[in-house]
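Data deposition worksheet. Section B asks for the primary sequence of the deposited chain exactly as it was used as input, without tags or linkers unless they were present during the calculation. Section C holds the resulting structure in token form. Section D is free text for depositor observations; keep each observation to a single sentence. Incomplete worksheets are returned to the depositor.
Section A, Depositor: J.P.
Section B:
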Amino acid sequence: PDIEKTGAIYQTNPKDGEMLYYLGVVSQALGKEKEAETYYWKSTWYPGFQSPSYLYLAEMYWRQGRRAEAL
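Section C:
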């Protein structure tokens, strides 16, 4: 719908980070590391997914040789 006509504003952020986290997991498994990194960072905005997302980011950075960022 045309926003100007309806006046509706759509929320584009999910209510929790689960979907973003799992999109990161799947993207990483498919070898799309840049995409996975984006999803993991977005999922860190949600408290329930901060720890696993940071862990996956650190592991990914370590494998890429980005040691300072991994730590």
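Section D:
The mean pLDDT is 86.
The helical segments are 3-6, 18-29, 33-43, 50-63, 67-70.
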